Description:
Helix 12 packs antiparallel against helix 13 (about 260-270) and helix 14 crosses helix 15. Strand 2, helix 5 (about 100-110) and strand 3 (about 120-125) form a beta-alpha-beta unit. This protein has helices spanning about 5-10, 20-30, 50-60, 75-85, 100-110, 130-145, 165, 180-195, 200-210, 215-225, 235-240, 245-255, 260-270, 275-295, 305-315, 320-330, 335-340, 345-365, 385-390, 420-435, 435-440, 455-460, 480-490, 490-505, 520-530, 530-540, 550-555, and strands at about 40-45, 90-95, 120-125, 150-155, 170-175, 395-400, 460-465, 470-475, 510-515, 545-550. It contains 27 helices and 10 strands. It is an alpha/beta fold. The chain has 4 domains: about 5-175, Rossmann fold (3-Layer(aba) Sandwich), CATH 3.40.50.300; about 180-240, Orthogonal Bundle (Helicase, Ruva Protein, domain 3), CATH 1.10.8.60; about 245-365, Up-down Bundle (Zinc Finger, Delta Prime, domain 3), CATH 1.20.272; about 370-540, no CATH class.
Amino acid sequence: MTEVLYRKWRPKQFSDIVGQPHVVKTLSRAVNSERLSHAYLFCGPRGTGKTSTARILAKSINCELKDSCKPTGPCNICLSIDKGAALDLIEIDAASNRGIDDIRDLREKARYAPNEASHKVYIIDEAHMLTDQAFNALLKTLEEPPDKVIFILATTESHKIPPTILSRCQRYDFARITTDVICNRLDEICKVEEFNVEIDALTLIAKLSNGALRDAINILEQSVVSDDPPISESKVRNLLDIGDDTIYIELVKYLLEKNISKALESVNMATNSGTDLRYVHMGLIKYLRAILLIKSNIKLHSDFSEGVYRQIELIAQNCEIDSILSCLKILTDPDLKTDSSNPLSIELAVVEIGIQSRNHNSQTIKTHAPKSMDKVVPQQGQNIQEKKEKGTSVKVIKDESIELEPAIKVDEINAPKNEDSSPLNTDQNDEKLENGWQDILESLRYTKGQKFNLKALLVTCTTRKLENDSIILGFSHPSHRERMEHELTIPESRKTLSDAFTKIMNKQYELAVEKDNVSLRENKTNGELQSPLIRAAQSMGAQVIGQSDKRDLDN
């Protein structure tokens, strides 16, 4: 059986290591000058060469034929290390040997002198997986290391290593390898192995590897055996179910334009075509980030082809940074990341972006609402009690450019309150429900193990009202209404929702979904009549005698 490609092309000497020049230079000088530490810590992302560098360092230290620390053989020590048969190179997987007994065994064996090499080298891979007790046992050995023994700890999560261990190791941070370096390495492999792979395909593979050369070599080998040569970019995309760049560009454009129907249609097309939605999610974040950087006058030509760059540059010119930020905040939510393969999760995120934009626009309009107060509220300095005694009638003026919202609350106006009035109590509960709506949504954040994100569904609720001891939830889209009806039939979901509302309202209400489709105009009219501003005027004796458009009055 042939050897897998990433093992065959594993670096054998320092000159073979790519993308880590700072590490190679420092370790080479340390070996040449024989100024070696007793403990090293190699940390960085997976596939960047930590374990390979540790083996090369072990070979360089013990090589019998040193030549500027390039262990090229035919030294017996180097050959035995390459074959995995060296007695003085001990590799330990801390993920499966993480207990205190394993470290005690290591301490006992470390006291013995090397068998055939000049130094005994211990490589502890995934060192962050060791238990606290194991770290404590290892600490004593690092404080007083045996002679001719070197420890090399490799980890992808250095923040989990105790500070007492960190302070006794020389630390080397391995960076993600750049796309150009990975692409050049893949091209070199293709020439030697006689693979017919187009340069565009190699560039795509390098980008997909996310800075990990080992991942890139694995994708290359998978691509070569999956189809007949030449291997093109489109074949790699089909193999990995990535989809074309136009999918991401169109979807980003629709999101920034707040064209939710078109955005949902694009997600549906990607799902039907078999595109992996995890790549759709990552692609959206990638292109939105690029647009954000371009909007900030940062050039990214090396990350995209010339045609794609021109398209995203045009999108950046026609959008606002606020829109980009709102999209990124929703799409980078950790809950969405864990469930991005589910079409509904992506669709709900798209709808949430649209709703957030609508709420932002509504908030902007509200800042102009005080200009219309003189049409309903008495002018400053007038006696409110006199207005009440005269029984002034108030004519509601319907202004489509101004949204009547609770700019002034009832309790802010110095008027008598009727504590026993049940309609007023109902109004107060309505207001309490609206004011506590965001708190209700926050209490329904997605938790691990939960089958459905109730918060994301409740965000699509367009109306909510109190009727007796029930809270009626209204949805504009039939699919959202049907989904909520289904969730209310599940005892766990119903209890979760009920508890969230009870916590804010201080009273238990029955939850129901509004069945009838009320027209938008009717909802707006009823909303104006129920406005706290109108109710405040009515509490002072005013009466609503009719409604009319502002345009009719102007004519």
